[in-house]
Amino acid sequence: MGPLIPQGFVNPDLNLFFAFVIGLGFGYVLEQAGFSSSRKLAGVFYGYDFVVLRVFFTAATTAMTGLLLFNYIGWIDYSMLYINPMFVWSAIIGGVIMGLGFILGGFCPGTSLTAAVIGKIDAMFFIGGMFIGIFIFGQFYDTFEAIYLGNNLGGIFVYESLGMSREWFAMILILVALLAFVITQKIEDSVNDTPRVLREARPSHMMPAMLMILAGFVLLILPSQPRSNWKETGADKILAEMASKQHFTCPDEIAFSIMQGDKYPVLLVDVRDPTEFERFTLPGAINIPLAEILQRKWETVFENPDLKIALFSFSDTHAEEAWLIARRAGYENIKVLEGGLNNFLYSVFIEEVVPERQRPDCLELHTVRFRENAKNYFQSGQAIKMEDKSPVPVIKVVEIEMPASGGC
Amino acid sequence: METKPKPYMNPYLAGFLLGLVLLAAFFVTGRGLGASGAAKSVVIQTVATASPEYAAEHPFYAEYFREGPGPMKNWLVYLTLGVLAGAFFSGSMAGRLGFKVEKGPKISSGTRLIFATLGGLLFGLGAQFGRGCTSGAALTGMTILSTAGFVTMMAIFGSGYVFAYFFRKLWLK
């Protein structure tokens, strides 16, 4: 199911609409929490107001728990989520600079937006400063590049770095958060000299705290292996199929299926780029670019028991790659058009078909006759009518522009 | 504003709701939230408008023009537009609209604005190194349990606590 956009479920026009709606919630909650006030934000560093820590930790633990549970139920495929890569020095230096910026400016980027829009002039200046800072980075990019791109450990998980299981780490993080809530409340009260009456009048947070611990336990009890929802085909099986060339289908078969029209259940899948597909393709073919083979929106196509699927590209290289990926993911009933488009066009349009032997047998005569028929059929232009028989709308997916080197 | 502004939301409730927003963002995009990416888009678009040749040559700016609809038609830009609208709605409901410079009692408005600009400058610079800011790198990174998220978070707040002492005059009574 999720994440929707990487799986190709969202049409690009809706994509930006989603962004706006999620932004609405983001901005609303930040402002409600008091993040539009620089003095409130700065409180976390001086002990008079720990709202930042409370909101931050609660949000992170809530979303973390939600993601792990969603992954377990199968609503989100955790393996498809983006893990921000660890460029050791760049991350540390960036964090230290941002920490100083936090103290001097009293905002961070998200909070400054919420403050500026309700009229805080200091926040508008902060945003102006941000533009300058980004511009400086751009101007001196050559100087910074070595640090920026150095020591890349890739998208690693913190529990791996610490050598523990994901669920145990989640549990510990929840407990640390709760402990931090209790301690910071005490610090805040002593810094502000909160009167005893007010301290005792506070509502108890026992219930939500217990719920968080319970959620942590639930994560621990659930089987820890993330469930991949692919029923993978064994590598040995795939190798055997390839070695015996069972995965190929010949141009004759494809020509036959095209000539039969819808009466013959072969679905031609063009795995080339959309631009090439637009230029020309086989009659009735649908386009699933190689990079999209595993997107869930094509599941209905690949798992349709009434369809045989034939993958093709210019030759058979890319189609074979697509076949490997699809077979590995457990899809059955898939073949590769041997020799690809080039071979098909050659054998249908160009190749002169004559019996090889002096006295051909019936089988060979059949083949020769079939090919003559096919040639007539294709050359007379009967097949040039491009009927769109795609069983699903072909949605072009726009990747979200958030490169690893991008902003936040 | 004549009326007294409404009190802020309970921070734990706000955190829980923010967690749900984050979860929704992951469910839709697989990438969480971000707040400084849009500022980067604005800078890149500005540079490209001022000098297209320069932007096309430059490694930092060029990557946004190689393909796709350019830096402004981007997920984070629309997210930020939503943030502005959502915050405005929240602030107006609570009676918190109004132009003012918020500062510690010991400094003048001018000083506050200078330091706000400086802070923004450092945040803009730091967010490039950190590949995201407090929301995009630290909060989102912690949610997905990435090492980078935790390291960036600790670096931001650790350095904040170290520098807090030296700049206490900005904020304390």
How can the largest sheet of chain A be summarized?
5 strands, parallel
Total helix count of chain A? 18
Q: Which class do the helix and strand fractions of chain B yield?
A: mainly alpha
Mean pLDDT of chain B: 90
By secondary-structure content and strand pairing, the structural class of chain A works out as mainly alpha
Distance between the termini of chain A: 25 Å
Q: What is the number of helices of chain B? A: 8
Q: What ranges of chain A have pLDDT less than 50 throughout 5 or more consecutive residues?
A: 384-408
Summarize the structure in words.
The complex is a heterodimer of chains A (408) and B (173). Chain A has 408 residues and is mainly alpha-helical. Chain A has 18 helices and 5 strands. In chain A, strands 1-5-4-2-3 form a 5-stranded parallel beta sheet. In chain A, β4 (308-312), α16 (317-328) and β5 (334-337) form a beta-alpha-beta unit. In chain A, α5 packs across α6 and α13 crosses α18 (362-379). Chain A starts with 11 loop residues before the first helix and ends in a 29-residue tail after the last helix. By secondary structure, chain B is mainly alpha-helical. Helix content of chain B is 65%, strand content 0%. Chain B is built from 8 helices and no strands. In chain B, α2 crosses α5 and α7 packs across α8. The longest helix of chain B is centred in the C-terminal third of the chain and has 21 residues, at 109-129. Chain B is globular. Chains A and B meet through α1, α2, α3, α4 and α5 of A and α1, α2, α4, α5 and α6 of B.
